[in-house]
Amino acid sequence: MNRKSDPYILAKFDVSGIQSYIFASNRLQENVGASCQVTRILEEFLPDSIKEEIIFPQDYVLDWEKEDRLCILEKENLKAEIVYIGGGNAVVLFRGRQEFEKVSQSLGRKVAENCQGIYLVSAYVEKTELQNFKSDMEELGRNLAGIKADMIRQPVYSPFPVVEQDNMDHQPITRCYKYKKDGSGDKFESYVIKNMTEMRYQKWKTYQWSRHNKDKKMYPMLDKINNYDYPVEMEQLCSKNCENSYIAVVHIDGNGMGRQIQEVLNTETEYAVAVSVLRQKSKEITGIFKNAYRAVLLKLENHTKLLSRDDEERTIFPLRPVILDGDDFTFLCAADLAIPIAAGFLNELSNCQKEENKKITACAGIAFVHSHFPFSEAYHIAEETCSRAKKKWYKERKEKNNCQDSSFLDFCVLKGSEVGGVQKHEEWQMRPYCVTVQNKRVRNDALVYLYDTIKAMEDKWPSNRLHRIYGAMLEGDEQMKLLQKEFLSRKYNIEELIQTDDWRNSSLYDALELRGLCRTELLEDLLNIQEKQVNEKMEFKD
Known about the structure:
By secondary structure, the protein is an alpha+beta fold. It is built from 15 helices and 16 strands.
């Protein structure tokens, strides 16, 4: 093939509208199905499109994770090679515009037919020679950003008044879906019939498919339990110990991932070397997050009281992973399990890495909401709280340059009909909390101090006194001083509860907000927290 007549095409395929698509409803199965649909676009539909349009297997490379080098530079017959997939986009190198256009059209059709509500965007740069990978990737990014800015997002359907409509999104009902009810035996089979929109139907079908096939990312191999699953209804996530049916939406995101990728591009500009290092970094990040999630499940195995069984004798874990893609991890769980599991995940993320100086860390944001709270809004709040935690990580990294092995956790408790996750009384909050130094009581924002306060509240303080403390805090410093004197006369020392002489510089307010929303024995186990000694003093380091 003549390279001059057939220039290289470096293309990028980007999946847009992911969040609104996945979190469009409070139906747990649809959320999970939608997440799987997004994953299928680049990991299944893209390779299938390349196979269909280029035809001969020897003319393309699809399994980029198994290739250490960029093969298209060495093999004249190759017409397409996937460079990498991650973060909701894929980079593919084509030898010729014709192949790129055919694959793009095929992939676009598959997305339009199978993933209504998702938008696929593609951009490319055309090069006769591959000289500077960094420069080409930057140009590709600019082209993609321009196309996305100018793109008109057409609605899925135009509803008509003569058609039955869905109560939530007002799209026309076009499908009648019949499926076997969970737990129904072979002898007395029980079926459920649902009328739904095309978009909901696609999500439901993908959820059933994913549950049957058990993707290895969501269902890692465990030591003691072979047959396990996750809750299928939102109500199953509500713990009896959680007041007013609270659940938690947890969003975890890696720290400085973009910076690490940029460092690769800045260091290596040659295509062959840069692609090889980029692939290795991408696989490393994905593997670390997978291993951390598996480690958390292995620890949850030992807490048999938290596990349940369905009618088919499958073990049901007390959380529902929704997204596990690269350094992005989102899950739902009972409210009192959120902080232990999130903190345990951040801790395992550190434990599964050997290099102390170059550890990949992450931050977590948790939204505590009622089970019927709009899920899309809850996810948005979890993202915001995660962003606050990441701001603290970046600030410490800039100021002290010593938080390379630090992860931070923040949360927001929404009570009643609150919407928006607006932070109140921030001056009394200690959060975000540092997770990775939890057993070294050397900083007042270490998560272990929140644990200590919650534990002391549970062990020694009556509920009515804690309620009075919370009310006094809302009224101000003078009311707190009066209450402290009153409690001292009755042998209740608030300073012992907060482990310092200034309640405004403690975890007290956060702990009071989390009353009943944190299972301390699980947090103690997942973080391996050592019991605080009676004569131990706080020694904060700047």
